[in-house]
Prior knowledge:
heterodimer, A: Rossmann fold, 29% helix, B: alpha/beta, Pyruvate-ferredoxin Oxidoreductase, domain 3, seven-stranded mixed β-sheet, 21% strand
Amino acid sequence: MTCKAEYYIVGETAWCPGCGNFAIREALAEALAELCLEPHGVLLVSGIGQAAKIPHYIKANGFNGLHGRALPPAVGARAANHNLKVIVESGDGDSYGEGGNHFIHNIRRNPDIAHFVHNNQVYGLTKGQASPTSDPGMVTGVQVDGVTVPPLNPLSLALVMGAGFVARCFSGEKEHLKETMEEAINFSGYALVDILQPCVSFNKVNTRGWYKKRVYFPEIKDLRDWSAAMDLSRQWGDQIPLGIFYNNPHRTFEESRSALEGEPLSFRPFDPEEVSDLQEEFL
Amino acid sequence: MEVNILIGGAAGQGMETIMNLLGKALVREGLGLISAKDYMSRVRGGHNFSKLRIAPGSPWSTVESVDILVALNEETYHLHRDNLTPSGRVIYDPQQFSLPDNENRGVPVELQKLAEEAGGKVMANTVAVGALLVLMGFKTPTVEELLKDTFAGKEGIAEKNITALKAGYDAAARFCSACFDLPPKNEDGKKLFIDGNQVLGMAALASGCRFLSAYPMTPSTGIMNYLAGKSLDYPVVVEQAEDEIAAVNMALGASYTGVRAMTCTSGGGFSLMVEGISLAGMTETPIVVVVAMRPGPATGLPTRTEQGDLEFILHSGHGEFPRAVLSATSHEDAFYRLNKAFELADRYQTPIFFLSDQNFADTHRSVEPYDFSRLGYNRHLAEEGGFDKPYRRYQFTDNGISPRVLPGQFENEVVLVDSDEHDENGNIIEDATTRRSMAEKRMRKLDGLTEEMDEPDLYGDPHPEVLLIGWGSTYGVIREAVDALAALGAKTAMLHFSDLWPLPQKRLRSLLAKVEKSYCIENNAGGQLSALIRRETGLSTGESILKYDGRPFLPHEIVEEVQDDL
């Protein structure tokens, strides 16, 4: 175990040259290295999309499941083995569109999971349709009149639903991204990091330059000030704030389950005969 | 030598409470019985009833005729009076309604008034139990003991209920005492009084199931209730998912990281799960899926029964992958068979289905205590030295089963699973050669599964002329029909399938060739088992006896259909 970022980088990617995913992968590898987490103790769960291929490109356990369904298996995994560091990585379509219901309810459930959303405001793998976070007016092959519906605001939604950790990063600010990832991984409970990234092939509006011009680091005095976090989450347009907006842990899914005290369920021995007293209540 | 009781009223009047109290008490007294629920999808009002049949041994099915009718409202009397035997009795509350003048079978018991005198209207049910006991010639101590158990720790509640019980007993004793002949008591020791969902919940827990994620859906919810009730004392996590899509995917995550995991639902919820089923097949993740069937399509009849989802389960999930489908036939068998589902899931690393239905789920029977030493907990996990390093989750093998390692089980070994087609490591591929090899590897597991299937149960005449074929929860009723037909002189046998897929064919082929007449009896409109048998064997199962009105078969319905042909 070397605790070096290069150790975690594996595989040949299917990403376009210049894709924001590369920086996100590097930041993740660096974060894992700085936390010195061993690959067999880390689980990456993803859905489907370009971002969701990341379990193939990072040395760790990986569950590359169904489109929109990254969070549910991650919760199941935590229940079975709460010694695993579980990270969910997927795109904006996967996390906020197809998986919207799981997003909402896992904020409520509050499992100890770091959720890194690669948000490029467009569908990449299906070649350029609008995503739930696309800006109004964006013209695509399907949204021929331009996007007419307002975007989903993941950070405001997460705050309203009671998320304990809410952050926004940008793939072009890799050092900040890495540090935020580390905080999110160490956070006890559900931690959302919405990561803005350019899609060089399909998003001609929100380019690297577009983001670069707008992002800034506001001074955040109190990480438990929910209203201030809410204000930051609603800033969009000429000025897009980056940072951890809110950090206020509360009781997790795992802490609320008495069955999860002690050894992970996965590794506890069992013999059916030990529980034969179960039938006594029916006598 | 048998007594049939029907307790009816509006939803919320507590028929189930009466039945459970009475049933358990009678089983403790050594009687064999079955009790079934007929209820509407509403919380208050409507007409619900429970039937209880006391008969020699442990009866397999309820019947149409009623010896004691407990009418908690007037509607109940009118709906069921035609089934009441001439020597039957009607327990009713004369303050609520009166019986017609020509009805001389009435046993008026002021249920509400006596309950209020004992301490509260809510105990009207306990008064009714007292009345029932005296009619059958029982004393009250067994029920008193049960009431004390039930309300242990709740000061005074048991005592008030005992007062209510005795009041009902004394009131009814004035009209009729011990006026029904009961079958002889079983002398072979204690029996359980348990319903189908409880059997499955207990079987899951005793099989080492440590994670259940589900969304409540009748008639499967009892399984979830059972396991949730145990989760404070046993190492099991029960999670109510936001929807069935989450339920199945959560269970897959839990299974992948190492526990025996299960989900349970009914047809509509299962419809939402099918993409996850396909994921289980592709990622080769063990999972047990209990589907408690109810009539569809769509919301259908939520609280009623049907065997309408066999074809759906057989074909659920896009793409091709191996699966097994087992079913709940009797309370005796289902306990061990659900364990078999868990064993198969771990051994073959693929989804295993367990089909139940409302008829099985909600029916209580008296059964022998289970032998927990017959249950298996074989996880088939690789041990150190049992796999090549670095670990490959989808290593090609002769039988298609790859060595299974859990995330975190071994230093420096990682486990990668993927819903895309993948290579032995679990990495995405698109080349034709690997795809072909991987598809063949998965499907090879079907050969092993085929060997695991139990032949259908043969009951009745060893050299039958008439064969009744069935599957799932119709086991008991067809068995009773076989006995009735045998008594009429017909050489009849039942061939009943518990394991449905891969379809066991040996016994079926040999019998169908010999019998003169055969029937396939199913609680559906399409004859789905019959179609499956034809597809797999080219053989016809003969006539179909189908029932799809949402109600379970009664023995006489089958007997009459067959008799007409003889």
